[in-house]
């Protein structure tokens, strides 16, 4: 991942924080798969909009982000600390009932994805689930803001997730949407259970 990605979120944290006003609708079916009242890890929480919905649904939450500026804003928003943590620093084992990563791992360098997915598998308890969304494409690159994206195909994503561990189930959803850049974008999300 290029340093320009985190530089963008550091320098534009306040503007970015106003971009998302409502939680991701796909969060709620994911939470139904997770043990009620269980512990969720969020990777790349941003301004904490989905994090707030996770807490309001009665879960315990470890929210994390690589941008100290966004983590500080989300900490204020949530009233609980958001840890400054890069994806590849995840070191938990058998800890989480759910790992949630909305539009965040799409910034991880493609070569780092297999290791990050293994770390997510290791961090989940048996029966725990992960939900993560990605911008779809055929090769990685940067957007008009200089942010790096792995722009991955569903097939390549599927191969990486399957290498990460013996999941009991893996499903995908695809849709057409957009993002902060307001460019029409193809998205894919994985839901997998350990
Ligand atoms: C597109 S935003 C999504 C934020 C939030 N999940 C949402 O849906 O609004 C991507 C987030 O991932 C974080 N991020 C990017 N690269 C990261 C990395 N390598 N490690 C940790 N966080 C990272 C950014 O700081 C940013 O908050």
Automatic annotation (TrEMBL):
It holds the Pfam family Methyltransf_25. GO terms for molecular function: methyltransferase activity. Keywords: Methyltransferase, Transferase. Residues 40-128 form the Methyltransferase domain. It comes from the Bacteria. GO terms for biological process: methylation. This is Class I SAM-dependent methyltransferase. The lineage of its organism: Bacteria, Pseudomonadati, Pseudomonadota, Alphaproteobacteria, Hyphomicrobiales.
């Amino acid at each position: 991942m290029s340093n320009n990605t985190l530089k963008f979120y550091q320098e534009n944290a306040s503007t970015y924080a106003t971009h998302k006003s409502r939680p991701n609708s796909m969060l709620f079916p994911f939470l139904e798969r997770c043990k009620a009242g269980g512990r969720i890890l969020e990777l790349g929480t941003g301004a904490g909009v989905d994090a707030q919905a996770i807490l309001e649904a009665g879960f315990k939450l470890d929210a994390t982000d690589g941008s100290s500026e966004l983590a500080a804003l989300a900490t204020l928003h949530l009233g609980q600390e958001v840890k400054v943590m890069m994806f590849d620093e995840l070191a938990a084992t058998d800890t989480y009932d759910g790992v949630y990563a909305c539009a965040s791992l799409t910034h991880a360098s493609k070569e780092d994805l297999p290791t990050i997915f293994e770390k997510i598998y290791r961090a989940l308890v048996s029966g725990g689930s992960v939900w993560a969304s990605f911008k779809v494409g055929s090769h990685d690159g940067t957007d008009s803001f200089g942010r790096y994206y792995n722009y991955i195909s569903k097939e390549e994503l599927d191969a990486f997730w399957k290498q990460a561990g013996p999941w009991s189930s893996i499903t995908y959803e695809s849709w057409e949407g957009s993002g902060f850049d307001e460019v029409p974008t193809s998205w894919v999300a994985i839901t997998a259970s350990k």
